[in-house]
Amino acid sequence: MTTTPAPGSFPPTTAAAPNPAGTTRPGPPPRPRPRVLLGSTAVGVAALLVLVAVGTVLDRPLLVPPLAASMALVAGAPDLPLSQPRSVVGGQLLSALTGFAVLAVAGPGPWGAAVAGGLALGVMTLARTPHSPAAATAVIVALQSPPFWSFLGLLALASLLLVAAGLGSARATGRTYPTYWL
After folding, report:
1. How much is the pLDDT for 124?
2. Residue 129 in contact with residue 98, Cβ under 8 Å?
3. Is pTM beyond 0.85 here?
4. Are 162 and 169 in contact (CB under 8 A)?
5. 175 forms bridges with which residues in the sheet?
6. In angstroms, rounded to a whole number, what is the distance separating the alpha carbons of residues 27 and 25?
7. Residue 60's pLDDT band (boundaries 50, 70, 90)?
8. Among 48, 83, 115, 116, which residue's beta carbon has the most beta carbons within 10 A?
9. Contact 132/40 with Cβ under 8 angstroms?
């Protein structure tokens, strides 16, 4: 059975498709407008380059893989709860603290890192700061045992820079960010 989409709805390529059971499942997300695609991509690249530049000036690495994933969420999916400033900054910092707590109990290593990554999920959920890339931050802490204060300070700085980039991306693309702060 084929239906004509209502005016303003997504094109048929994104409509629900029947599965073998005869029920429907959602299709892929709609293609972004060119301005959104280009703006989000440019801001994502620029934000990550800023992290590298600031890290170079401070002679400390500021760009770590979880922050690249955070930027992908902030620039590419700014409406998601995972992308909101509360989740980006709070999730990263709480996960790092979780990693340090596990590190204090278990010492550095893969077993503690696995526990830290899993516990970070629970801590973020309890604090209502969901941010999946931050679980990897807990893993990094438990594996590498970085200096406590400098790691937290740099992580806070990097997270705030990503949120600032999200604000810039929203202006450039006409999207709304954030949908909430706290």
Report:
1. 98
2. no
3. no
4. no
5. none
6. 6
7. very high
8. 116
9. no
Is residue 143 within 8 A of residue 108, CB to CB? The reply is yes
Residue 97 to residues 5, 42, 101, 112, 145, Cα–Cα distance (Å) = 49, 31, 6, 13, 12
The partner residues of 18 in beta bridges, in order of sequence, read 24
Contact 55, 95 (CB under 8 A): no
Helix (H, G, I), strand (E, B) or coil at 108: coil
Contacts of 76 (CB under 8 A, 6+ apart): 40, 44
**CA-CA distance, 5 to 12, in Å (whole number)?**
7
- Could you read off the pLDDT of 113-168 as tens digits, one per residue? 999 999 999 999 999 999 999 999 999 999 999 999 999 999 999 999 999 999 98
What are the backbone angles phi and psi of residue 7, rounded to the nearest 5°?
-55, 135
The tokens describing 176, both together, are 């709304």
What letter would DSSP give residue 80? S
* Long-range pairs, 137-140, Cβ under 8 A, ≥24: 137/64, 137/66, 137/92, 137/95, 137/96, 137/99, 138/95, 138/96, 138/98, 138/99, 138/102, 138/113, 139/99, 139/113, 139/114, 140/64, 140/65, 140/66, 140/99, 140/113
Angle value at C-alpha 98, between 96 and 103, nearest 5 degrees: 95
Cβ neighbours of residue 19 under 8 Å, at least 6 residues apart?
A: 25
